[in-house]
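Worked example 3. Consider a protein that binds nicotinamide-adenine-dinucleotide.
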Amino acid sequence: MKILGYRDADYDSFVKRLNRRALPTHDVRDLVSEIIAAVARQGDKALVAYAKRFDNVLLKEKQLFLTPDELAAVKVAPSTRKAIAASLKNITAFAKKGLRKDWSMRNTEGAIVGERFQPFDRVGVYVPGGKAPLVSTALMTAGFARAAGVPEILAATPCGPDGTVNPELLYALKAAGVTEILKIGGAQAIAAMALGTKTVRPVDRIFGPGNRFVVEAKRQLFGAVSIDLLPGPSEILIISDKTGNPDYIAADLLAQAEHGGDSVIGFITDSKALIGKVVKAIERQLETLSRARYIREVLKQATFMMQVRSMAEAVAISNDFAAEHVSFICAEEKKWLPQIRTAGAIYLGNDSPVAVGDFLAGPSHTLPTGGSGRSFSGLRADQFQRRTSIVKLDKRSVRKSLGVVEEFARIEGLDAHGRSTAIRCE
Ligand SMILES: NC(=O)c1ccc[n+]([C@@H]2O[C@H](COP(=O)([O-])OP(=O)(O)OC[C@H]3O[C@@H](n4cnc5c(N)ncnc54)[C@H](O)[C@@H]3O)[C@@H](O)[C@H]2O)c1
Ligand SMILES: [Zn+2]
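Given these inputs, the predicted complex is written out as structure tokens:
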């Protein structure tokens, strides 16, 4: 854990380093481009080879997809079914609010102009499965696709060494409306969905979070497909004044640490006393957690706590860092909230655990990480809609448009353009 305050000698250089840009390292970039090239060249054969190399599973080319029988046989506890239904209910309601609706109006010349929104025909969602079966992520991606009315939803998720996928995850995928399940993970799964293979039909757009290989594959395949955003290893930044409850703050930091070593955990406050209390609370709570040893490692490698001069400084650092989740606890919430501009999601006050947003609240937990929050927003239902603009003129509006069109045609030296409009006014 790195603990520092504004009086420390290395404070300024540390703060400077928190101003991030989401860019991959060279080794990840090179490995991923090699994987993409192999999938493009060898298709299913490459998928089988990488599943063996990275996931330690022996699959045949015929076994890349989950069969309908396997899916039909999935059974989960009633309590699981209830939890998944509760989450999907909130997700669907939230998603429907975010869908865009067709509209039209008349422009100055009287032409009808408008926008039409239709669901994509076929999308791919990546559901991480490396470290934990992210059942909630299945809902937080495919659930939005279904709410938008996408008819074909291909999900990709890595299977275990025995070739099976966690039954709760399968149940969630089915509940969220997924129509095909590819048992492949990593960059190779993204490549297969984007480029297609003999057995995988390519998709129009790819959604969903993953580790750095998955995120880099989406970045490199942009163009072959479109992507939602760059949602990588999860992270949190907690900003609190002295009104923050140290036990709650510690609990949220620990919950984040559970996500894994690639993620970053930050705590910024203008109260030095609060840092001391949070550190003590972490030690106390850690004792009772099942993944304590693992969490301890993350706290050591990837956690910082900082005493800043003021809330203004805290907010400025937060905007530079562009964290996936910002927890904001401040007596002057109304004053500062509009100024937190680059966060993927903001959790307000002492009583808003990020975990509720992870699993249940409604907004997708698929959020930009690694500093990409500066340029991307979290996953929304309207990202599953393809937008088309529509223009319709009649004799009156075409006549009214002619003067301006002819002037542009003259300036740009495109006389056929002018002629195509004039001919309709003769
Ligand atoms: N930002 C968000 O919205 C959000 C939401 C949920 C999860 N996440 C993040 O997603 C990540 C999931 O990561 P994960 O690893 O558990 O699952 P994952 O499914 O993303 O990655 C596992 C796959 O990576 C590939 N792989 C593993 N090691 C490799 C290597 N050395 N080289 C090349 N490929 C390799 C394997 O094929 C494996 O199937 C976590 O960091 C989590 O925080 C983010
Ligand atoms: Zn979480």
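Take a moment to read the result before moving on. The mean pLDDT is 96. The longest strand covers residues 112-119.
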